[in-house]
Design brief:
The chain is of the alpha/beta class and 208 residues long. It has one domain: DHBP synthase. It has a ten-stranded mixed sheet with strand order 1-8-2-3-7-4-6-5-9-10, sandwiched between helices. Helix 1 packs across helix 5. The mean pLDDT is 94.
Length: 208
């Protein structure tokens, strides 16, 4: 049976945030809110927890997980960021974007795209998620909470509880989340390439 924490979306309770981090650090799988939709995540280095997420979502080994980071400096630790991309990331973070960049040596090989050696990273603009990331002091290895056979992410934490309370260790209820995925931006080429148009605006593309 999973834990269920109602964490205030504007003023997160420190005690519950600490408990959430303890569960993640012990190898727990957590469902949590973001600025685009609910996501499912675990500790960066926990292969067993990652495999549990793969089973819950019925993902194959080719699915690319995202590193959910607290800020731009954490992105720069786990990815190779040049000056041009740094300026773009500074403009678009935090926000509903996932960026594809070359992985640094800090990223476990199993999380990298096997051919391109890339990794997806994002900095969510969500107070609860930021509180957890600050206390955790490392990124969450994460995937959007889209269940097998569904096209859209789950949005209602009560429904998540009914469906997943025996499959995950913690559900963080941070209120209603949308069901629009992030905009995915590939920064491996000479110009940014939009791989998926989602919640994040594309107005900045005119300037690049």
């Amino acid at each position: 049976m999973s834990q269920y924490f109602e964490i205030h979306p504007d003023n997160p309770q420190r005690r519950l945030v600490r408990q959430a981090v303890e569960i993640i650090a012990r190898g727990g799988v957590v469902v949590y809110p973001t600025d685009s939709s609910y996501a499912i995540g675990c500790s960066l280095g926990d292969k067993g927890a990652m495999e549990r997420i793969q089973r819950i979502r019925r993902l194959n080994d080719r699915h690319n997980f995202t590193l959910v980071c607290r800020d731009l400096s954490e992105i720069a630790r786990y990815a190779v960021v040049d000056n041009i991309n740094y300026r773009l990331l500074k403009m678009l973070t935090p926000g509903p974007y996932t960026f594809i960049l070359k992985a640094s040596r800090e990223v476990p090989r199993r999380l990298q795209n096997p051919r391109r050696k890339t990794i997806g990273l994002r900095v969510p603009d969500h107070i609860v998620t930021q509180a957890v990331l600050q206390a955790l002091n490392e990124p969450l290895m994460s995937s959007t909470l889209i269940m097998p056979g569904e096209e859209l992410p789950m949005t209602d934490p009560y429904e998540v509880r009914l469906q997943l309370e025996h499959a995950v260790d913690l559900i963080i209820d941070g209120g209603f989340c949308g069901h629009e995925p992030t905009t995915v931006v590939d920064l491996m080429g000479d110009r940014p390439e939009i791989l998926r148009e989602g919640k994040g605006s594309l107005d900045w593309l005119v300037e690049h």
